[in-house]
């Protein structure tokens, strides 16, 4: 039997990337992996100044000057986000890929609006800014946008309702932005990755135990994949994912395309 052919949409080598939430956790893993795969430049945004600066120093020492750039940025502030995009374009003169990874998880009522602003609104804003730069219909050269959602977007449940809602919104938005008619105009792939629970600070027990004193969420998360597994899956999607597709990366397994199953589910839901 002949080996199945997998189309490679993108080689990371010699490309310029922007990663949100890139100072720690999965975001930092993505930044490191892109440079390991010989990306030309990687800019990463985060509010964590100390962690971001330390990672920039580490990467410049390892890969050389201008290979990595940390930009302190609160992506929920559209002015700061726009300035960060301008800085990347001014410095590197091009942009080939954006990975919208930044997320906030909280149930503090004072911070719920921030969760919506970071997880969803900023993802929308970053996607639109990336399309303005990379879209061939805007004079760009095409590219790729990966928006990070969650398995919670695919499961009905009663815990973390606002967080789940933001990630469901990211999924719906990304599917629409990656549709064939949009891709044919922009030549920018928009792809969704639904991550399973991953062993990062957002799932730190001391953080999650504050959410639900009666039945701590941390105790419900039985399987957490390693950061390296999440990063490996995201890079696989970056290389192989078709625009508008949805992929799942969970339980330290190889990333897999969930688009057909999701389309069937939406077909059932829309048949009313």
From TrEMBL:
UniProt keyword Oxidoreductase, yes or no: yes
Q: Which GO terms describe its cellular component?
A: cytoplasm
Task: Write down the InterPro entries for this protein, in alphabetical order.
Answer: NAD(P)-bd_dom_sf, Sc_DH/Rdtase_CS, SDR_fam
Per the record's keyword annotation, is Oxidoreductase included, yes or no?
Answer: yes
Which keywords appear in this protein's UniProt record, sorted alphabetically? Answer: Oxidoreductase
The parts of the chain that form a coiled coil are: none
What molecular functions are annotated in GO for this chain?
A: oxidoreductase activity, acting on the CH-OH group of donors, NAD or NADP as acceptor
Which Pfam families would you find in this protein's record?
adh_short
What family name appears in the similarity comment?
Belongs to the short-chain dehydrogenases/reductases (SDR) family.
The name on file for this protein is: Alcohol dehydrogenase
Lineage, broadest ranks: Eukaryota, Metazoa, Ecdysozoa, Arthropoda, Hexapoda
């Amino acid at each position: 039997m002949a080996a199945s052919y997998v189309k490679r949409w993108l080689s990371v080598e010699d490309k310029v990337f922007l990663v949100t939430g890139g100072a720690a956790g999965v975001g930092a893993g993505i930044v490191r992996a892109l440079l390991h795969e010989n990306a030309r430049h990687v800019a990463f945004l985060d509010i964590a100044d100390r962690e971001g600066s330390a990672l920039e120093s580490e990467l410049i020492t390892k890969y050389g000057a201008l290979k990595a750039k940390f930009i302190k940025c609160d992506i929920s502030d559209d002015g700061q986000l726009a300035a960060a995009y301008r800085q990347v374009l001014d410095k590197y003169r091009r942009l080939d890929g954006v990975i919208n990874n930044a997320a906030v998880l909280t149930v503090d009522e004072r911070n719920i609006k921030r969760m919506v602003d970071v997880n969803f609104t900023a993802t929308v804003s970053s996607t639109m800014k990336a399309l303005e730069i990379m879209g061939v219909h805007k004079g760009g050269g095409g590219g790729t946008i990966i928006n990070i959602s969650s398995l919670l977007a695919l499961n009905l449940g009663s815990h973390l309702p606002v967080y789940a809602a933001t990630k469901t919104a990211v999924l719906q938005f990304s599917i629409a932005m990656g549709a064939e008619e949009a891709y044919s105009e922009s030549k920018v792939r928009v792809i969704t990755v639904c991550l399973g629970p991953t062993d990062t600070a957002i799932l730190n027990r001391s953080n999650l135990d504050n959410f639900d004193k009666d039945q701590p969420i941390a105790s419900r998360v039985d399987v957490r994949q390693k950061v390296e597994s999440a990063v490996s899956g995201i890079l696989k999607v970056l290389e192989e994912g078709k625009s508008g597709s949805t992929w799942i990366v969970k339980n330290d397994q190889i990333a897999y395309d969930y688009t057909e199953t999701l389309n069937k589910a939406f077909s059932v839901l829309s048949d009313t």
